[in-house]
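ARCHIVE CARD
CATEGORY: sequence design from structure
SOURCE FIELD: tokenized fold
FIELD CONTENT:
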């Protein structure tokens, strides 16, 4: 199979779909890999390393898309990239289609097979390709939130861990999954007063065991959440419903009642965000204010730690890329129902139920195309 790796063009997206070591795993098995020049430079992987791994370098994204049967990316295709996709081609990347009707339309119109990292599952119901980015995003979210709490950044001027005789910052984390647990871990490590909200009692029990009293792990009710949010110095939104738009858990009225100079960090912004006042931002202009509350809603937070994130993502995606290359797309998806769950668009049809419901498309089950 011929696999293509274009350079990411989304604003300040420094990650790359395949590192040289991943390329070597493919070329050593007889597959061809075509890589756009400069695609790994920002993460410390120069073109020479790709050539040494057996890749062919090309100068334009058009050349990558024209030659490759399988396109491996990191972020959702921008319009210019989506226009290069064609029927019979496979795209493997993060998509986050539910809050993005334009992208969904482009991919449907392309006729391509589009697999989303964020909806591939495992036998335990986890999301193995999203998990490493959720780890990075949770940790980056807390670092970014602490930075924007500083007075020099327009924040309240609160040190996350406090000092002798001064109480630490009050941090609320909404959602106890991978993002929330990692955000809370960093906040606890920095000495903050941390409260985690979730609605899964088994997950709260796990978190209690992990944090051992260093963070409050509470069942989320509207009353408890309201009380915590309006008195918090920082709130991290870390809620995910796989494939679906994120519910709005903090209202505009609650934001209005928050402390002036406090910070909201919406890690769920890729799926529409969990604060009513959220809108996507970029690393160029990461924040905005609503009612004097700072909102940090960068849609590609892990790119701030691009090298760590790229290596972690490649560790997770490599077995799936190999399956596509070795077996072909049809057999790889027919053999593995967990991988098949990643199918979002195929031959002009929406094949993920949550995406279809949120965007008003007719749903076609992947099994109608890929089933033993």
């Amino acid at each position: 199979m011929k696999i293509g790796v274009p350079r990411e063009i989304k604003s300040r997206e420094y990650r790359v779909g395949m590192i040289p070591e991943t390329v070597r795993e493919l070329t050593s098995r007889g597959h061809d890999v075509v890589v756009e020049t400069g695609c790994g430079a920002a993460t410390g992987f120069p073109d020479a390393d790709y050539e040494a791994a057996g890749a062919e370098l090309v100068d334009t994204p058009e050349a990558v898309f024209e030659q490759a049967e399988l396109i491996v990316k990191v972020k959702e295709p921008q319009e210019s990239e989506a226009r290069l996709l064609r029927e019979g081609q496979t795209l493997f990347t993060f998509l986050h289609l539910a809050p993005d009707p334009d992208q969904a339309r482009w991919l449907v119109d392309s006729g391509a097979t589009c697999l989303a990292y964020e909806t591939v599952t495992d036998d335990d119901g986890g999301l193995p390709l999203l998990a490493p980015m959720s780890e990075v995003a949770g940790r980056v979210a807390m670092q970014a939130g602490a930075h924007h709490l500083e007075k020099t950044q327009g924040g309240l001027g609160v040190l996350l861990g406090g000092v002798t005789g001064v109480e630490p910052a009050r941090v609320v984390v909404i959602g106890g999954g991978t993002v929330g647990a990692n955000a809370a871990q960093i906040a606890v490590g920095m000495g903050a007063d941390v409260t985690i909200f979730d609605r899964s009692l088994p997950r709260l029990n796990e978190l209690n065991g992990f944090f051992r009293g260093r963070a409050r792990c509470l069942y989320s009710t509207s009353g408890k959440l309201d009380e915590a949010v309006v008195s918090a110095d920082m709130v991290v939104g870390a809620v995910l419903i796989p494939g679906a738009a994120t519910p709005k858990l903090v209202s505009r009225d609650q934001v209005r009642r928050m402390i002036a100079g406090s910070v909201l960090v919406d890690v769920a912004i890729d799926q529409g965000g969990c604060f009513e006042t959220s809108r996507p931002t970029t690393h160029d202009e990461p924040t905005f204010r609503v009612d004097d509350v700072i909102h940090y809603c960068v849609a590609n937070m892990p790119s701030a730690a691009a090298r760590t994130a790229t290596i972690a993502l490649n560790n997770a995606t490599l077995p799936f890329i190999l399956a596509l290359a070795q077996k072909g797309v049809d057999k790889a998806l027919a053999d593995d129902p967990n991988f098949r769950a990643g199918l979002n668009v195929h031959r002009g049809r929406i094949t993920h139920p949550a995406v279809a419901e949120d965007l008003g498309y007719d749903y076609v089950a992947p099994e109608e195309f890929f089933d033993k």
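CARD ANNOTATION: The chain has two domains: 2-120+305-368, 144-299. Residues 86 and 110 are 5 Å apart (CA to CA).
SHELF: design records, drawer C
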